[in-house]
Amino acid sequence: MENFNILLCEPNGTLTMNASMYFKGDKDINLIACNSVKEFDDVISTTDIHGLIIDLDFQRCEEIAKKVTARGIKIILVSRLMEEEIKDLLQSIPHEICFYKPYSLVEIKAAIMKIMMEQPVTIRINPNVRALDERLSSIFIRSGIPPHIKGYTFLREAVKLSVIYPEMINSITKRLYPTIAEMYDTTPSKVERAIRHAIEVAWNRGKIENINAIFGIKIYNKGDKPTNGELIALVADKILIESM
Q1: Sheet holding 51-55: strands in order across?
Q2: Rounded to whole angstroms, what are the CA distances from 71 to 45, 55, 64, 206, 222?
Q3: 3-state DSSP call for residue 55?
């Protein structure tokens, strides 16, 4: 399979850093990130680009999109605004699909591959997402994790991604944390620390019996605090079993 050169134009340096980390070493996609029009001009003049991911907030976005389309380059748009707020703009900019923040790099890669292989691409909407959110909220609150801390949100997203893409649990540092970081405009290390803090809060609150009751067996004693990966995998596995 061909290795595709994909150019990411994103004004936020944190987001391009996260995306670069996520795609580093990817066997299908060579991601080239830039944060300015000058960087874009340098890359486009020296590199054979197959696809472009561009944020609507990127300077001269519409002009750039039309320029690369004339060269046969496929475009994925990214927007912080929802579709109804930018529908007129979307009609004027050539593109294959638009993703709305927060979005998953897993979904972005899937879209890139389909577009490059000239297959129909749509954003998959899981009708059970709300039910999954409610189930996870119940588990975490009963476990003693307060919903106002960042680790609660990151832990919920980590489990959701692991349920939808089970292979991600085996690549927490390289894929899971960077994906969540991209969705919430932060760094993978902050995601890891926030989740670890959430687990520490739960254990300090002493709700071990509640956690054991959730799973129906005695998994933990007071001193048996799980790692991030262990708790994510355990909850994801429970959700997967319940859905069978």
Answers
A1: 29-34, 4-9, 51-55, 74-79, 97-100
A2: 12, 19, 11, 61, 62
A3: strand
- Are the beta carbons of 6 and 31 closer than 8 angstroms? yes
Nearest-angstrom CA–CA distance, 9 and 206: 47
In the block, which residue shows the tokens 């529908």?
A: 87
What residues does 32 pair with on adjacent strands?
Answer: 7
Whether pTM > 0.85 for this model: the answer is: no
The answer to whether the Cα torsion of 191, 124, 116, 84 is positive or negative is negative
Dump pLDDT digits (tens) for 196-226.
999 888 888 866 677 777 766 667 666 677 8
Cis amide linkage into residue 127, ω under 30° from 0:
no
Backbone angles phi, psi at 152, to 5 degrees: -60, -50
5-9, 20-24, 160-164: least confident range: 160-164
Sheet strands (E) in 36-168: 51-55, 74-79, 97-100
- Structural contact between residues 134 and 113, judged by C-beta atoms closer than 8 angstroms: no
